[in-house]
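User: I'm curious whether this sequence folds into something compact or stays loose and floppy. Could you predict its structure so I can see for myself?
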Amino acid sequence: MSVELDIRNLEEMSRELLDLTPDGWNRSIFFDLSKLTEEVGETAECLNKSKKTKEDLGDELADVLAVVMVIALKSGIDMNEAIPKKQAKRVAKLVARFHDGKYPAKK
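Assistant: Here's the prediction. I'll summarize afterward.
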């Protein structure tokens, strides 16, 4: 299945997961945090095993994104706002740290 993915699509997919899971919306956020830790661990395991494929890694990374979005939804965080804001902070920090405060010319 190939879908043009954006944050809103991911939000809807994660909303579907919450709707389909018994008590999904009412489960403790700490359960979701534990699930995120589990999925990140499975991603690390996938990277460390030579028999795992690129598809396996993609599956694990997709699980991580889904759980992150579940946590955002349940916390009332709009990732369409949060991601660009955080990116601007990251870029400013890197420019200040590695480029004397001047954004480098694109190569």
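Summary: Residues 78-107 form one domain. The mean pLDDT is 92.
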